[in-house]
Amino acid sequence: MAVFITGASSGLGAALARHYAAQGHVLGLLARRGERLRELVATLSGVHHLYVVDVCDRPALHAAAADFIQQAGRVDIVIASAGISAGTLTEQKDDFAVFKAIFDTNVFATVSTFEPFVSHMKQARAGTLVGIASVAGVRGLPGAGAYSASKSAVTTYCESLRLELKPFDVGVVTIAPGYINTEMTAKNPYSMPFLLEADVFATRAARAIAQEQSYTVIPWQMGVVGKIMRALPNWVYDRLAVNAPRKPRQNP
Where do the structural domains in the chain lie, given as residue ranges? Predict the structure, then answer.
C-alpha cells in the first residue's frame, strides 16, 4: 500500500509515518524541514520518498504528488497532516498575518494536497483522502479564532468532498484530534484533559482510516466533550467558555 503524508517531519504526521512504515507500506513524506524529515526516515524500515516542500507552495506540492504517483503506481491513502496553531486576537492588527498563515496551512494546503490525487483515485475507483480537523473546531474558542475557524472549515470541506467522491468509491475521512502530546500542544499553558501520546493516536487514526469512518474524534472521551459542546445553547456555552484559558499569541 502507498501512503502520502504531509507535515511528516514532526507531530501527528511523524507518528503516522512511523505507524505505516512499521506496517511495511511505501510512504511519500512531505515537510518543509528537510533535516527533521531525513532524521525521521533514518529511523524507518523500508524505502520511502522524501519531499522537502512547504505545503503552502502549491506548484511544488503538486509536483511532489505527481512524482509519488509515478513512483508508487497507485496511491491508496493521502493524509493532509500539516497544520499550525497560534493564539490570535482580531483587534491586534499584526495578527492578520497569523490568521492568514493558519488558514493557508490548515485549510488551503489541505485542498492543495488533495487536488492532484482526486482524478488518480477516481480513475482507480479506490483510495482514501484524510483531513485532520480538531475538537477545537467544534465551537469557537476565545483567543483561538483563527485555529478554531480553520479546523471547522476542514471538517465542512471534507464533508463536501466526501459527498462529491462517494459515487466514485473514493473515501474521505475526517480525523478530529483532542489533545495529543506533540510540539504544538507543548506550548499550551493549561491542563489538557485526556492527553494522548502521538503514537497511540496514530494507531487509532489508522484504524479509523482503514474502516473509512467518515468522522472520528481521538481520543473518544473528547468526542463526548465535543458532542456536549455542540449541543449547548449559545447562552450556556458563552457562560462556560468566555473565561476559558487561551493559547498565547505568537508567530505560528
Answer: 2-241
pTM attached to this predicted model: 0.94
For residues 126 and 76, is the Cβ–Cβ distance under 8 A? yes
Pick the CATH number of 2-241 from 3.90.170.10, 3.40.1580.10, 3.40.50.300, 3.40.50.720: 3.40.50.720
**Could you confirm whether 147 is annotated as catalytic?**
yes
What pLDDT tens digit does each residue of the chain (252 aa) get?
Answer: 999 999 999 999 999 999 999 999 999 999 999 999 999 999 999 989 999 999 999 999 999 999 999 999 999 999 999 999 999 999 999 999 999 999 999 999 999 999 999 999 999 999 999 999 999 999 999 999 999 999 999 999 999 999 999 999 999 999 999 989 887 777 777 777 888 899 999 999 999 999 999 999 999 999 999 999 999 999 999 999 898 878 778 765
For helices 11-22 and 34-42, what crossing angle results, to 10°? 30
Placement of cell 523500508 in the chain: 46
Residue tagged active-site, from 147, 179, 190, 237 = 147
